[in-house]
Amino acid sequence: MTVSVPFGEAPRLPDSGPPLHEVIGKAKAGSALSGAEALALLAVGPDATHEICAAAASMRDQAKGKTITFSPKVFIPLTHLCRDFCGYCTFRKDPKQAGKDLFMTPEQVLDVAKAGAALGCTEALFTLGERPEQRYPEAREWLEHRGFRTTLEYLTHVCQLVLEETSMLPHANPGTMARREIAALQPFNPSMGMMLESTSEALYAKGGPHEFAPSKRPRVRLRTLELAGELRVPFTTGILIGIGESRRDRIESLLAIGRLNAQFGHVQEVIIQNFRAKPDTAMGDFPDAETDEFLWTVAVARLILGPGANIQVPPNLSAENYQIYLDAGINDWGGVSPLTIDFVNPEAPWPALTELRAKTEAAGFQLRPRLPIYPEYFLDTTEFLPDALHQKVSAMADSEGYVQGGMQRYAGRN
C-alpha cells in the first residue's frame, strides 16, 4: 500500500494492518515494512515483542553482518543558551546561569578537539542551543563583538577551524537550519544531525513538552531534513521515546524519516533514544521509558527502515542492560567519548571502551570504530562530500571505511 503524504506531515495510516505472522515473515525475508504493515505491530505484548526483535535482528544481520560500530568523539557544547524551552531539558541555560561563558571561544574549542585527537578520537560533535540570539540580547552582543550575526555563522567558523587545524572531523548538531546555513556548514562537516524526536501533535499542544519550543514543531524539523537531502548532506536523525507519544506516533515518525531517505538517500543514521527524567525540569517526575517499550520501538525501527539502515541506541542511557538492544536489530552505539561527558545527559556516563567491547563481543559481534560519516557515504562514491573533505575523510579511513587502526588505537584506554 502506498501512503500519500503532503510535505511536513506524518503519513496517515489506516486503522488496521495485516496479520502479524505475515508481517514477521516479510521482515525475516529482508523486506522493510510499509506503514500499513507496521500497524500489525501496534498491539503486541511482551511475548510477541520477542518475535519482533528476532525478526529485526535477522534483518540487520542480512545487511550488516556481525559488525557493530561506534564513533570515538569529543562533545563540544558551543553554547547552552537556547530560544526554546523543552519540558525535559537540563542542557539549556539563560545568560544569568551561563555567566561569562555564553559561548565557548575558538581557543577552548580547539583545546578540546586537540585533546580528543590525542586520545584517538575522530569526531568533534558540536551541540548547541537553538538560535539564542533571537531571544537574548547578550547572545547577540557576544556574537556581534566577534564579527558574527548569528550562532550558526559562528558555528561555521569554529567547524572550519577544527577541520583545518586538527585531525578531527566536525559533526554539527545545531537544530533547525535554513538551506543557506546547511550549505555554509557543508564544506567543513562530513555529516550533520538533528533529532526529529517526534511528529506527534500532542507534544507541542498546551501542556506538552514542546509547547514552548517552536523549533521542535515537526514541520520545521522535517523541512531541515528535506533540505539536507536536497544538498546531499549525510544526516543523522532519530526519535525520542517516552515523552508522551504513542506507539502509533513512533511508527508515523519513523515512516516520515524513511520517506525522506527513500527520496534522497541521505539519512545515514537513526537514533532511537529513551527518555530519562531529570530533576528540576517540568518532566522531572515523569517515568523513564520502559525497557519493553524501548525494545519494541528499536525493533520496529529496524523493520520499517530496512536492513541497510544504521540504527543506534545510546549505551550510556541504558547502562545496566544496553547489550540487549543488539537483539533488537541495532548496529551502532553512537558517539562514545574517552574525554568529555554527555552534556545533554550529564548524569549518564559513557561506558568504558573496554566494557563496550567486552559486552559487544560477548553477544557475538565485532566492535569497530567509525568516522562521523558512515562508510557507504564516502567509500567508492563522491556523491556526498566536496572534494577536499572527501580527501581528508578517505585519508582517515581503512579500506572498509572504518577508522584506521581499529580498536588497537584505544588499547589500554578506558
Question: Secondary structure elements and their pairing?
Answer:
Elements: H1 20-28, H2 35-38, H3 46-64, E1 67-79, H4 95-98, H5 106-118, E2 123-128, H6 137-145, H7 151-165, E3 169-173, H8 179-185, E4 191-193, H9 218-230, E5 235-241, H10 247-264, E6 267-274, H11 291-305, E7 311-312, E8 332-336, H12 353-362, E9 366-369, H13 387-396
Parallel strand pairs: 1-2, 1-8, 1-9, 2-3, 3-4, 4-5, 5-6, 6-7
Helix pairs in contact: 1-3, 3-11, 5-7, 9-10, 10-11
Structure description:
There is one protein chain. The chain has 414 residues and is of the alpha/beta class. The chain has one domain: Aldolase class I (TIM Barrel). Helices cover 35% and strands 13% of the residues. The chain contains 13 helices and nine strands. Strands 1, 2, 3, 4, 5, 6, 7, 8 and 9 form a nine-stranded parallel sheet that branches. α8 links the parallel β3 and β4 (191-193). α3 (46-64) crosses α11 (291-305) and α5 packs parallel to α7 (151-165). The chain starts with 19 loop residues before the first helix and ends in an 18-residue tail after the last helix. The relative contact order is 0.15.
Helix content: 25-40%
Decide which structural class fits the backbone.
Answer: alpha/beta
Sheet with most strands: 9 strands, parallel
Number of strands: 9
Number of structurally distinct domains: 1
The value of Rg in angstroms is 20 Å
Q: What is the fourth-level CATH superfamily?
A: Aldolase class I
The CATH C-level name is Alpha Beta
Order of helix and strand elements from N to C terminus: HHHEHHEHHEHEHEHEHEEHEH
Beta fraction of the residues?
Answer: 5-15%
Q: CATH architecture, please?
A: Alpha-Beta Barrel
How does the overall form come out from the CA principal axes?
globular
Q: What would the CATH topology be?
A: TIM Barrel
Q: Report, as a whole number of angstroms, the end-to-end distance.
A: 49 Å
